[in-house]
Structure formats: structure tokens, C-alpha cells
Amino acid sequence: MLSVNLSLERTEQKLPLPQIKINYNPDTPKSEPVYQTDDVVKLMSFLKTADREMMYALHLDAKLRIIAMELISVGSLTSSMFHPREIFKGAILNNSASIILVHNHPSGDATPSKGDLDVTAKCKDAGGLLGIEVLDHVIVSANGYESIKKHCDTISQKIEKAGEKKRRQEWDAINMLVNLNETMKWQGNLSRPEIKKLSRKLRKAIYKLFLSQGIAECALRKYYTMTTWSIKN
């Protein structure tokens, strides 16, 4: 009779842990420093004809020279899914001082979407914590390109100009009201033309004051015209 003796021996097996190695090749040719968006677009011109969205990260050294080009993700016709950790993993291993993000829009419209703006903001925040600055996020298409940095700078400038305009309107309105107040202190009985003149100044001051508070200009113009007509008649 054949018998089999099964004995289980408990052994401690040490599993080898994966190691991360950083390879540095001093003979790698250095590119020219990247100063303009046009330089990035020229380098990534192959994305213009891509049939799906592709996200790349350009790794730069302290002198703004490209030391690596990394493909982060390949998506569909209208979207590309990725996370900031995928973007900065390679940048950290390459000892990058900064990065430039580049992706394409197969639709031909390079206008940044809300998703593009949100992702860029998240990557900038993450890069700030890691000490790796996101210099720009460039969108390439068959009909042109768009720099999100310039796009956001333009919006910021418009907001700043609008704020300056409102502050100027507010200052003008307050100045006019103060002058009217000083004028009225020394006035006795006013003639009808003088009342109309002062009323016109008062309406202008209130109009500017309302504009500075963001009240719709079209509505103000309508009521301004109505009150002017009623005073004249």
C-alpha cells in the first residue's frame, strides 16, 4: 500500500521589494531654453493631427532646457483622464525644476475647457507643494493653439480693469456728492434752472455710484433717460 506523508513546514520567505532607480545620463543632449509658447508648439506639432487627446509633460531643468518628454495619458476623442500624481512622478525622478503640460484638442478648437482650467489649477497647487513649478499648460489643435497661462492672465487683466473702472466711478460719484453738498450749504432760494442743474449733477453722481456697485448699466441708462425726460417736461 502506497502511503504519502505530507508534512507542512513553516518557512519565512523574504519577498524582494521593488527598487526605484534613477538613471542620469550626462551625455543626454540639452535643448535650447524654452522661453516662448511657439517653441513648445513647434516641438509638439505632431499633436495637431492626433485623432485622440494625448497629454504630455515636458520636464525642464533650472535653465528652462527640456530634459525629458513624458507621455502621461492617451484618452478618447473628447477627453483624457489623468491625475497630478502621474504628472509629477516622472518630474520628481527626472529632478525637474519645472514642467510644461501639453495636450491636444482633436476637434480643432484650442479654447480651454472648464476641465482644462481646473486640472491646471490643481497641478499648479501640487507643483507648489513639491517645488516643481507648472510654467504653462498649452493646448494644441489643427487650427491653432492656446496658452492657459496667457488665457488666465487676460481674464485677470479684464477683471482688474473692471475693478479699477468701478473704483474710479465710485470716487467720481463721491466727489460729485461732496461738491454738491458744499454748494447747497451756501444756497438760498434756487431758481428752476438752478434746481435742474443741481438735479442733473445729482443724477450723474448716483448713476456713477450705482455703476460702481455692479448694477446693470442698461437698466440705469433707461431710468436715467426717463428721469431726464420727466425733469425737462
CATH superfamily of the largest domain: Cytidine Deaminase, domain 2
Tell me the name of the CATH class of the largest domain: Alpha Beta
Low-confidence stretches: none
Largest sheet: 5 strands, mixed
Radius of gyration (CA) equals: 32 Å
Strand content bin: 15-25%
CATH architecture of the largest domain: 3-Layer(aba) Sandwich
Explain what this protein looks like in three dimensions.
The chain is an alpha+beta fold and 233 residues long. It has 2 domains: 37-142, Cytidine Deaminase, domain 2, CATH 3.40.140.10; 163-232, no CATH class. Helix content is 47%, strand content 15%. It has helices at residues 37-43, 84-93, 114-130, 148-185, 192-212, 217-232, and strands at residues 54-60, 66-74, 98-104, 133-141, 144-147. A 5-stranded mixed β-sheet has the order 2-1-3-4-5, with helices on both faces. The longest helix is centred in the C-terminal third of the chain and has 38 residues, at 148-185. The relative contact order is 0.09.
